[in-house]
Design brief:
Elements: H1 4-15, H2 38-52, H3 54-71, E1 80-81, E2 86-90, E3 94-95, E4 100-101, E5 107-109, E6 114-115, E7 126-131, H4 135-147, E8 152-158, H5 161-168, E9 172-174, H6 179-184, E10 188-189, E11 191-196, E12 199-204
Parallel strand pairs: 1-10, 7-8, 8-9
Antiparallel strand pairs: 2-12, 3-6, 4-5, 7-11, 11-12
Amino acid sequence: MSTLLPLLALLLFGWMPSVRGDELGVVGPTWEISEPDLLEVIESRLKRMQQTGELARKQREHRDRVVASVEKPRPVAGLETTVTPRHFFLDPSWVLDRDIRTADGALLFARGQRVNPLDHVALRERLVLFDGRDRRQVALARQMLQRSAGGGKAILVAGEPLRLMRSWKRRVFYDQGGSLTRRLGIRQVPAVVSQDGQRLRVDEIRP
């Protein structure tokens, strides 16, 4: 508002007809228009927070939240421990909503084309999804990964991935937000995803 008033005054002054001005004296007290510098306000606030220890406390709280979100992510909602085993097949094909081109602009796949990724790349490793809070599922997943000739990827849907990674001395992934389980239609864990021809096979296994 304080920056708008001088601009408005200049505009009005430019539209007024030229008149002779007389010295009328000082009608009332006047002050310079000023507003605090935003950076100075922020710097002053930070100095006060540093002096009172509030800044260090907030930094610790932020660090603790970040560490907690990495060490123990939010469990994927809507999943249950497998009671009734089942298996089903999934066609991963989808219709492209835009052109797919190479880095030099050559067209690979046109918009509207139906594409199956398994026609171009194989799922070399089985995906083993499980709840890291359930000892039975953890034990079963470890056995399956050790027995798998083609290797496998351990994917948690709940639990502490970094702790398990340190214990197993291998990479452990996390289905953050449940995007993978939703896309694959998985409702129970542990579950194993493997390739069967040009389809994906999903097995929900009783621990």
